[in-house]
Amino acid sequence: MEPGTRLRRALWSAVIFLAVIGVAVALRRIVHLWPILTRGYVPVATTSNPRAAQFVALDEIFARHPILTSVHIVPGLLFMVLGPLQFSATIRARHLRWHRWSGRVFMGCGLIIGSSALVMSFTMKSIGGVNQAAATILFGAFFLYALCRAFWHIRRHEIALHRQWMIRAFSIGLAVATIRPIVGMFFATSPWTGLTPYEFFGTAFWIGFVLHLIAAETWIHATLPRRNAIVENTVVRRG
Ligand code: HEM
What we know:
Elements: H1 5-39, H2 50-63, H3 66-86, H4 89-94, H5 96-123, H6 129-155, H7 159-193, H8 197-222, H9 226-230
The structure holds protoporphyrin IX containing FE (HEM).
């Protein structure tokens, strides 16, 4: 059975909420990096507060790589703004030209985000160590693969398969926003669990990415046209 209107609304609300988180984290990081990009890096004074020190240490990682981080987060900001618009059926139906052009920008942003994520994973010190790097390498590579598959299918006018791969790519990109509240929960409970950011960051990344992959596959499956359910790779050709 096709998912009902309520479920669609709930999903849209979740997507918009996560996109807003994504925009906020990208903007916060851009604001933090701006003086470093314009005036150069100045080491931050150390703090005796152990909690504040954890956040300072996180900011320091990105402050030491302002250009690479900016190459990742500026397209990340656009990705969060354009993504929900790309999935709007109303925009697709009424403004197809706009959908195509913004789709190209979205795809370009995705390729830069994914490639820079891989470079960051290999060259920058991850706060969650090798566990976090493993998650970002695996899902960064999958994200790039999904985008390329989506592009390949649309060039062949295979709309249904294009849609499926775009859902996978967008869902993985959006996971970055879900990871923030998960990290927040780990931080909030750390006085009781005793876990340090080094220990929980990687786990938070795995949880976020895997949850989004499951959500994407569930949605794709739930919205599969009936004829596709019988012959899975049915190609819906345009016009
Ligand atoms: C598959 C997609 C993505 C992967 C694999 C990925 C991976 C990464 C990696 C490896 C880092 C460095 C983390 C560290 O060294 O501790 C990072 C940082 C960051 N990423 Fe992504 N990223 C992805 C998508 C996005 C998107 C779509 C956004 C849009 C908002 C984004 C925003 C950021 C921000 C703002 C940072 C700086 C950290 C912060 O401010 O908390 N990323 N990402």
